[in-house]
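Dear all,

This email documents one entry for the complex benchmark we are building for the journal club exercise. For each entry we list the sequence lines for every component of the assembly. Then comes the predicted three-dimensional structure of the complex as a C-alpha cell string, followed by one or two observations. Please use this as the template for your own entries, and keep the labels exactly as they appear.
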Amino acid sequence: MAAKSIISRPVYGTLSPQPGKHHLFIADAEGALAISDMAAKAPAGFFDGAEIDFIPGPDNKHVATLKALKPAQFHLAPSFASLLPRLKQTLGNAHMGLRLYLAGTEGLIGQAMQVALEAGIDHTSIQTEHRGSLARRMQCVHCKGITENVTTQPAACSHCGLLLLVRDHYSRRLAAFQGVCINAEDRSEIPPIEEAFP
Amino acid sequence: MGITFRKETFRDDFTFRNSPEHIRRFPFPFHEDAYMYAVNIEPHVVGPKGSVLENLIDVDEHYVAEMQDRALVLAEDPLRCQSLPHMTLAGWDLLELLMEQQALGYPEHFTLTRDGDRWRWINRPLGIDDTFTFGDTSTLPYGPMEYITRQSQGDFCILDQRDGNLWMDAGMVTTQADWSLDFDIGMNFFEWHAPVPLAHEKGIFTRALKFLTNIQQGKPARRLNWTMTINPRLDTSPENYHKWGPDRTTVTPENVGDKVHLRVELQSFWRLPRSNGIVFPIRCYLIKMDELVTQPKWARRLHRVIRDLPEELATYKGLTRYRPTLVEWLSKLDDGSATSPGFGPD
Amino acid sequence: MSTGTTKLDVVVSDVVPVNELVTCFHFRRRDGELLPTFSGGAHVVVEMRDGDRTRLNPYSLMGSPLDTREYTISVRRDDVGRGGSLFMHRSVKPGLEMVISYPVNLFSLDLRAKKHLMLAGGIGITPFMAQTAQLAGEGGNFELHYTCRTASLGTYADVLRERYDRRIRLYHDDRDERIDLDRLLSTQPLGTHLYVCGPAGMINWVRDRAAALGWPSEAVHFEHFAAPQPGLPFDVTLAVSGKTIRVDEQQSLLEAIEAAGVDPPYLCRGGVCGQCETNVISYDGKFIHNDHWLSEEDHRSGCKIMPCVSRFEGRSLVLER
C-alpha cells in the first residue's frame, strides 16, 4: 500500500498581504523567510498593525530579519507550547478583520490553525506557506496518541508501539495525519522503514 | 403481528444469521454482471412490500441485537459518537425524523405522542418509555442525536451545509466500513472522501455534492454501496483494525460460505428542517455467502463482479488477500448462463 | 434526479396591511395539518393564478420556525413591476386557495457563529424576522441593524423593538440617520458572521466594506433575489421539446417555458440558486442578464442564461430545453 497523495492533504500557498488593518503572523524556523518575502509585496505601513510571533529554533536564525520589518509587536517563543497561552489570549480579544498568516513546518501550521479554528476563524481565510522540514504530526487511529516529528514511512506509534502507515489523510481538527497499522492482518509482515518526510 | 427480533451476536461467537424471508429481501447491490462507481442516486421513495424499502427507515429482525452491539462499542470507545457544538439543533431534527419514521412504519413497536413540545416516546423492543421536552437537552439522558441513534439501526452522519459544501460535523458511527468519525469529523465532502480511489478523477464527488446540496425537504434520496467483511462483524472500524484485520487471513476454501459476508450500505440523504443540515443514514446489511448463494442469480452475478473488479477497488475494499479463494468458490456456482436484469432474485 | 420542491395546498387565513406599501399574508394547510418545519432565512415560492397567467414568486417566511400552524410572508407593492405584488395586494383575500412550495433555505444562519450581525434594508427585513425568532429561542447572540425610509415604512420595526429591545438598532433615512458601517464592522468579536438583506446597492456596499476591512467572504452572507424585470416581448425556440414560444412583456422567460408545458427545475426563481441554468444553442441579439449565479465570463460567452430573471432582445434565440 503506497501512500498516494489524496485530497485531504493540506495544500499550502504563498503568503500574500490581505486587506484589513490587523495582521497576526506565526512562524517557525525557515518560515521567517516566507514572511520577509511577503513583506516585499506589502503596502507601506502594513506592519504597523502587525504582530509577529516567532519560534526560531535552536540556531536562532532569522530573528534580525523579522525585527527589521518593524511590526507593532514582536515576540520570540522557544516552542509552540510556550506560545499557546499568549496566542489564545490574542485571539480571544481580537475582532473580525484580523488576518492570520502561518509559515514554517507543517506541525506549526497545523497546530496554530487548530487554535484559530477554535477561536472562530474560518480555515479558508488563513494564509499558509510551508517552509523547512516535511516532518509530520501523526495520530494513531488505534490508541489516539499523537506522535510528533514523524519522518519515516512506516513509523512506530510513540504511545502504543504499533507500526503505522502514515496516510496522506489529514485532519485539521487534530492537526495531524492519520496513522493506521500497516501489518494488522499479519503482524509477522514487517515492511522496510524508509525516510519519507525529511 | 410485529417483527420477531433475533437473539444474536456480531462479535466473539458470531451467531448472526438471516431468516429465509430476510435473505430474499436482502438489498443485493448489483443490477448487472459488473461494478464501477457511478452517481447511482435516486429518490428515496417507498418500495415494494416485503423489501427493505417498504419503509423509508427500515427496522428488521436484527434491530435489538444491533442496538446491543452499538452499546458495547460505545462503552469501549465513546469517541464513535461525536457532535460539534453547533450541531445540537440538527440532532433534534434527526430525533424528530427517526421517531416519526419508526412510529409510522412500525406502530406495534414504537409510539410517539406529542403535546406541543412535550413528547412521549415508547420503544417497546428496547423497553423505553420516556417523556421529554423537545429542544431541551436536559430532559434526555443523552444529547438528542446520541439518544435516538442508540435506538436506530445504521450509522448516522449529520452534515452542515455552508459555502456550497457539506461538513461532517456530527455522527454516530459504530458499524462503519473502515473509516474513523473521530478523525474525519469537521471535514468537508471532498476531504472525508479523499481516500476513495478512482472516483475523484471521474468527477463523481463533484456531481454528487451538487446533487446533495440541493436535496429538498420532503424529498430524500438514496444510493447503495457495498464491501465485504469477514465474519458478521458490524464494528469494522480503523480503530480496531489491528483486532479484526487478522480475520482476513482465516478464509479457506472450506469456510468461505460461512465466513465471507457481502456488506451492503443503503445510504439515504435527508434535508433537516430546523438546522438546514443534511442527515446521511448509512444502513448496513450483512449476508454470508452460504445465504446469498441460495439465490442462483446472485451467486452467478457476484462471481462475475468480484472476478472482474479493478485492482484499485479490490484493494480499497480490502478483498486482496482472500479474493482468489472467494472467486474460486463462487465459480463453481456459475454455469455461465445469463442473469436477468435488475437487482432482485429470480 | 428531479430537484424541484414538493408543493403544499394552502388557504389564505389572513391578510393584514402593515403600512402603505407592505401587506402580510398568512397561510394554513387546507387539510388542517401542521406545515413543514423550516429554518430561519427560508423562502417559499407562491403560485399566483391570475386569469390565464401563472406567476411564481419567492418570498421569505417571516414567522417563527417554532410555530408551523401557519406561514406568513410580507409583500411590498411594486407599482412598476410585472404585476405579482399587485396581484397579491388586490386579488388575494382570506379564504383563497393557493399553492406554495415546500420551504427552501438559500440564506441560512451559520450556526458556528459566536455572534450573528444582521443588516436589513427596507423589505429585506423579512428573513430576519424568522432568524431572530429562531436565535432568540435558542439563546443565540444576535444584533440587528435596520435601515428604513421613514418610521411609518419601518415594517415590523416596532414588533422587533418590543421583542428584542436594544438588540435592534433603527436608522431612518428621512432623519438622516446612517449606520457607521466601518466602526460597526471593526468592533465585532472574532467568530462573528454578517448577514445582509436589502436593496442591491446596500448589499454591495456592505460586502465591499467588509472585504476592505479584512472580513473573510465565508463570514459574509447575503440574500438578494432579483425580481424578474418586465421588458420587450421576444421569441424563443426550445430545441429539445421542439417548441417556439413568445415571452410577453410582463412574463419571465421561465414562466413562458412553463406555460408551454416544459418544466425546468427551479428553487429560488430569483437568479441565485442555479437550478434553472439553461444552455444557449444559438442566438442573434443581446442578452439582458439579471442573475447572480452565472460568472461574468458565462454572461459574456452567450452560452448560458438563467431564465428565471434574464431576458433577451434580438432576432432569434434557441435554447437547449
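Observations: The helical segments of chain A are 31-39, 63-67, 80-92, 106-118. The CA atoms of residues 4 and 168 of chain A lie 7 Å apart.
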